[in-house]
Amino acid sequence: MTVMGFCVPSRDTSDRFSDRCSNVFPCLSDPARRSTMCLKLALVMLHLIFVGFLFIVDDELKEKSKEQPLYTLIYMLLVIATLVQYFLTSGSSPGYVLDAMRDFARTEALLRASEISKQPASSKNGSVVLTVNRNQVGESLLGNNPMNWTKLVMDMYPPGTSVRTYTCSYCNVVQPPRAKHCHDCDRCVLQFDHHCVWLGTCIGQGNHCRFWWYILEETALSIWTGILYIKYLQAHIDKAWLVDVIMIILLSILSIALIFLLLLLLFHSYLVVTNQTTYELVRRRRIPYMRAIPERVYPFSKGACRNLYNFCCARTSIYRMEVLPSAAELDQKSVPYTCVDVISCRCC
């Protein structure tokens, strides 16, 4: 198509180019995944800009790198570790309820298969050999007998609780305590915390620990980079120069990001110590089993020390589910903490 002597690409040409890109890169065909990839690329570019510009303009840092290569090596290792932790967290599973159901079905199928294989086979001639396909048993258990999962989950709630109250209307599965349906991922997530746009995934039971470590590394990197920027400006502040203006702009952006990261790190550290999630803290009154619990009572807390241990060291399975505490346990948890309780790591 030609307009006033200029060649304008037709819509068919652009559509064909888009189809070719989608065939080569299937992930680009989904708008949500495409936006997530753009955010990840932008985050990596920001790291390269802040770190690369510093090494380009700061001659003193270059000299220090030659004299003390270990200093620069540790800094660059922190940069790499932060980016690696970012991609590991974004690519990790938060722990979906459907995956937990499949794992439960597979485990129960193996138990049933082992029990069947131990039973003596009998026939008229006494020579029948019974074989069981464990994968088929697992699939049939998941598809045809969901009542086992329902019973397992409903035993975690107080007696008399209605199944319909905790059945997800989108996934049509019974949600265990602390689970929630994420409308961005379109799945129910165990111990749902929030959906992180920058990571492009939910933060839940399976990746909350990685998320906390990523925030910690990002905060440490921002502090170290900010110190290097301030040192450069102190040494060159008397020179009115374009580079200094760019450094001040970058330092301002870095300072805003650092304030946000520090607040986020402190907030999630508080959640870890008290064994809460962002959703439970913000939407407490919207969760049926949390409405009758006082504000300062943390129903799933097992004490600061035990919470930290479970969060960092004892996460053997991303499908671990917690039972709602009884009324007596809630009364015990409502007793205020004292200094002695903190030192002795009171268990509730």
Task: Describe the protein in words.
With 348 residues, this protein is mainly alpha-helical. Helix content is 58%, strand content 5%. It has helices at 11-24, 31-57, 59-67, 69-90, 97-118, 134-144, 147-154, 208-236, 242-274, 278-282, 304-312, 327-333, 339-344, and strands at residues 2-3, 6-7, 180-182, 187-189, 194-196, 201-203. Helix 4 (69-90) packs antiparallel against helix 8 (208-236) and helix 8 (208-236) packs antiparallel against helix 9 (242-274). The chain is elongated and about 75 Å long.
How far apart are the first and last residues' alpha carbons, in Å? 73 Å
Mean pLDDT: 81
Helical percentage: 55-70%
- Find the count of extended strands (DSSP E, 2+ residues): 6
**Proportion of β residues?**
under 5%
Sheet with the most strands?
Answer: 2 strands, antiparallel
Could you name the ranges where pLDDT drops below 50 across 5 or more consecutive residues?
1-11, 121-144
Largest sheet, order of strands side by side? 1-2
Gross geometry: elongated
Instruction: Give the helix/strand class.
Output: mainly alpha
